[in-house]
Design brief:
Chains A, B: It comes from Halarcobacter mediterraneus. Chains A, B: One of its GO terms (molecular function) is magnesium ion transmembrane transporter activity. Chains A, B: InterPro entries: CBS_dom, CBS_dom_sf, Mg_transptr_MgtE_intracell_dom, MgtE_N_sf, MgtE_transporter, SLC41_membr_dom, SLC41_membr_dom_sf. Two copies of one chain form a homodimer. With about 450 residues, chain A is mainly α. In chain A, the strands form two sheets. In chain A, strands 1-2-3 form a three-stranded mixed beta sheet. In chain A, strands 4-5-6 form a three-stranded mixed beta sheet. In chain A, strand 5 and strand 6 form a beta hairpin. In chain A, helix 4 crosses helix 6 and helix 7 packs antiparallel against helix 8. The radius of gyration of chain A is 30 Å and the shape is elongated.
């Protein structure tokens, strides 16, 4: 992105790019980079951003807008006219177009309908169809643009059609020819790398069956299952079917986005953050959502405090306990988080499943106990030296073993159980776990102190 | 994977699959699924696993072994003979072959050399070349198998060569023809979807320049930069060059693996877990590595304890402080983790950078203060009701605001600063942050109590 430097500012640079595009002169910018520049301009000078947006030709804008985040798509009706948005939408692939209309409708349903009504009937139908799927269904991710060929068609005839589609620029990322039979029945796909070497006089029916791959997913499939299939089998694209009829395809770059979203969701969930809310521009909404998880954390912290309150007399008679007690809870919380994170991740990657539960729990308990004994010794010696009380060292050592054992056990059990009950193990695991390690930590330490020291 | 059920066990099933494969009869299994079955067998009955491994033909094993985790590749010399491993290696793509040899060498360097020596000279050279790259360099991920064409060659001649390569099964996932000039100089790539519609009598030089994409990365590029380029531009594969010479390519499925590894690393680092160590089979090594981070956590927990120790007289005179003090620290830790996780993730996704630092910090501070005031009110009222001490409510409320403010501030600043000093912000951020929130939490609460309540 060095190109900007020679221009006074991003605005001038983008206007020059637009001129080049119109003249089709030296135009070798990727829409992703232009989207990045435009976003920078939007952040630094909104008026200039609006000005530039109005100048971008629809065809180029269609490519740029696909690369823009949700919140920019949502607000685009405040920047350019409905007519232009309709024009832009008509130049997009169906999956991008339906996403744009969906995003606009989230802010302003009426405006979205208005834009939709300006499209031709066929585009309207496709977008309405794609937006009728649930958010997690394969159908809402697919594009209807694909290279389909008829089983008894000559390869030559099909390739001439492809040529025309490419010339009209309506088809991108063509990895396969999708072979269909009568009434659009999906038969299978053949990679272009296979197809390209066949005699063009043959029909698709003449191609050996082992070259035709039958992978497909239902339009109602959960997108995470589709993502798993595509990544496990290293596919470039997958056919989406409605019963036995071919209705669309999902390409690897869309699957990549799905996977990155899943990763963000997992990471955020473990930290008590909602990934959808974080994408909002409104700090109030982000804050409100984080407050929800902080509220739950407050309840669990109060539970831990109640446990401490049970032993107020013990603490009164030996304040050293108050000084040391956060150590046991903190070590338990950390060891538990280690176990929990590894378990959640390995379940998500498919490395472990409910059937391996016993083995996973055993492994985690052994590791935690190993570290429990190690740190029991260390902290026992430290407490003894610090407070000159040998028995205090014994108490904290014992409670360290107990708490790290329970950290390992519950760190593995909680996500496995949530998964079994079909609850996302990333959501809520952390808060349940720290409740356990706090309560076990304080209870074991102060309880043992009451028995042994008083 | 239902197919197994009709067989008595996995072993019988796999042996049948092998028979079918040899007879080339109804063979439509994906190597990924066979690898999964084989892993299951390995876990349940190692002897049967070894027995089956010895029966798998080399060509099929080459495909299966690519799908197996590192630890299985490492131990494979204990399961099958060096000669067979050499045979399997020779059937693999160069990137998979070099990875296998590398993994074996990690356990047994001599064995790896022995296997390598059994390969033909060309394979040996390629594998040695790929394994000479650093782990993070593009070169160590590339495969040398690709469809390269000469600029002045006729398309027809090139396609005949492709046909032969496909028949010999040495080339997979061909998305592009890579056009080279004299002395292997890389000119650009043309997608098969473009190429397939051109007249086969033309040469590659006759193809319009805008169809030839010049994207490429140096073999010394950091793999994370390559991954960024491929995903931002939605590429299927990228050319890897040594100066101006084409030396290999990296395909989208390999990039997918890189990204998943990065995601795992990020998630694990935030939880104080090392991703490489977790892949070990030895529980001792996993435990040792986790102990490292627990040890650092112990030090920070002791620091927090020392802070508490400064106020032992205050606690002695009001034990309610010991009961309530974990609440402030816990809320600070949680709010800070929310901020930290969002900041680390958005930096990794490229959504924010050092130049946005001010804006990010401001946003996070505002959100934290919003929640700070909210929960200050809630906990203030609870503490007042619980202990019937209005001033105790004031103390905890004030310290909640202070601690949530510092949680938001440091949760954003720490990863941004680490990134600036080119330290991975995911590693170590959490432990620095919780040290801050613990110390600020205990110090502000107990300090304010000493001033206001005594």
């Amino acid at each position: 992105m060095e190109e900007v430097k020679e221009f006074e500012n991003i605005k001038e640079f983008l206007l020059q790019v637009i001129e080049d595009y119109k003249k089709n002169e030296n135009f070798d910018f990727h829409p992703y980079d232009l989207a990045e520049h435009l976003l920078k301009l939007r952040d630094s000078n909104y008026d200039e951003y609006e000005y530039v947006c109005k100048k971008i030709p629809s065809e180029l804008f269609a490519e740029i807008l696909c690369e823009m985040p949700t919140y920019v798509q949502e607000e685009i009706p405040t920047v350019i006219s409905s007519k232009k948005i309709a024009n832009i939408t008509s130049k997009m692939d169906s999956d991008d177009a339906s996403e744009l209309i969906y995003n606009i409708s989230q802010k302003n349903e009426e405006k979205a309908q208005n834009i939709l009504s300006k499209l031709d009937d066929e585009d309207q139908l496709v977008i309405q169809k794609l937006n009728s799927y649930e958010e997690n269904q394969a159908g809402s991710y697919m594009q209807s643009e694909l290279f389909s060929v008829y089983l008894y068609e000559k390869i030559d005839v099909a390739l001439k059609r492809l040529k025309k589609l490419k010339e009209e620029d309506v088809l991108d990322n063509v990895f396969h020819a999708y072979v269909v039979g009568k009434k659009g029945r999906y038969i299978g796909s053949i990679g272009l790398e296979e197809l390209i070497v066949f005699d063009r006089g043959l029909t698709f029916n003449d191609i050996p069956k082992d070259k035709i791959k039958t992978y497909s997913c239902s339009h109602f499939s959960d997108i995470s299952e589709v993502a798993e299939l595509v990544t496990n089998y290293n596919l470039s694209a997958i056919a989406i079917i409605d019963k036995d009829k071919l209705v669309g395809r999902i390409t690897h770059d869309d699957i990549h986005d799905v996977i990155q979203e899943q990763n963000t969701k997992q990471l955020y969930s473990l930290a008590g953050v909602n990934d959808d809310a974080e994408q909002e521009e409104s700090m109030y909404r982000i804050g409100k959502n984080r407050a929800f998880w902080l509220g739950i954390n407050l309840i669990t912290a109060i539970l831990a405090s109640i446990v401490i309150g049970l032993f107020d007399a013990t603490i009164q008679s030996l304040v050293a306990l108050a000084v040391l007690m956060p150590i046991v809870a903190s070590m338990g919380g950390n060891a538990g988080t280690q176990t929990l994170t590894v378990t959640v991740r390995q379940m998500a990657l498919g490395d472990i499943s409910y059937t391996d539960a016993k083995r996973t729990i055993k492994k985690e308990v052994v590791i935690s106990l190993f570290n429990g004994f190690l740190f029991a010794f260390v902290i026992g010696v430290i407490a003894f030296i610090w407070f000159k009380l040998p028995l205090l060292g014994v108490v904290i050592a014992l409670s360290m073993v107990i708490n790290l054992f329970s950290a390992g056990f519950f760190g593995a059990v909680i996500p496995i159980l949530l998964e079994k009950f079909e609850i996302d193990p990333a959501i809520g695991s952390t808060v349940i776990l720290t409740t356990v390690t706090d309560i076990v930590g304080f209870f074991s330490f102060l309880g043992l102190a009451t028995i042994i020291l008083l």
